[in-house]
Specification:
Layout (H helix, E strand, L loop, with lengths): L2 H29 L14 E5 L5 H13 L2 E4 L10 H14 L17 E7 L7 H8 L7 E8 L7 H8 L4 E2 L3 E4 L7 H10 L5
Parallel strand pairs: 1-2, 1-3, 3-4, 4-5, 4-6
Helix pairs in contact: 2-6
Length: 202
């Protein structure tokens, strides 16, 4: 085999190896922005827990889920709230004034595995329903990030972020999202912008 042939073969192999390395690098860069679906992927540490009485808060929770792929958990009570507005409001007011903690009908079995917990609820009597107080007192949120989101009739978050911080002083409460009841489910761009702003999506 001549020296010139060997040199050409060596250069050809080197170029091929370099080309494959560049392709693998670029492919890896592309995957870095993809949402992983299995194993210990980021979304497995993200929980979307929500209480929804009329379905409005559930619509926002579903939008968050579609963009983050976090696990969903619906907070439910053993004692079901009345469907009609006035009886439900009267019961919620009595519970708040009494500091009553409704019993949970659903639990998160693996709460320790989540580092980010979205907490969704309607605003009742200027704060979150008392079942959310039960929920927050039922787990250890030390070191976790709590991200509130709520639906309301015009009060915004009202007192709920303050109450969440009081119940979970060792957690970090991040910037939340709120929308009027009539707009729930109709503001997907607002939800997407909010999630990007707080670093939950790319």
């Amino acid at each position: 085999m001549s020296e010139s042939y060997s040199r050409r073969a060596f250069l050809k192999r080197g170029a091929l190896t370099l080309g494959m390395a560049i392709m693998c690098h670029l492919s890896g860069m592309g995957r870095a922005f993809a949402v992983p679906q299995t194993g210990n992927s980021p979304e497995r540490t993200m929980l979307i827990a929500y209480f929804s009485h009329t379905g409005n808060t559930a619509l926002v929770a579903e939008q968050i889920h579609s963009l983050t792929h976090g696990d969903m958990h619906r907070i439910r009570t053993v004692e079901v709230y009345p469907a009609e507005h006035d009886p439900c409001s009267e019961l919620a007011g009595r519970q708040l004034r009494a500091g009553y903690r409704p019993e949970l009908a659903s639990r998160v079995d693996n709460m320790a595995s989540y580092s980010i917990v979205f907490l969704g609820y309607p605003i009742w009597w200027h704060t979150m329903p008392m079942v959310c107080w039960t929920f927050l007192e039922s787990y250890d949120f030390t070191g976790k990030n709590i991200v509130p989101f709520c639906t309301h009739g015009g009060d915004g978050f009202a007192n709920s972020p303050r109450d969440i911080r009081a119940l979970c002083p060792q957690a970090t409460v991040l910037e939340g999202y709120h929308t009027r009841n009539a707009h729930a489910g109709r503001m997907p761009h607002d939800v997407a912008d909010w999630l990007r702003r707080i670093g939950m999506t790319a």
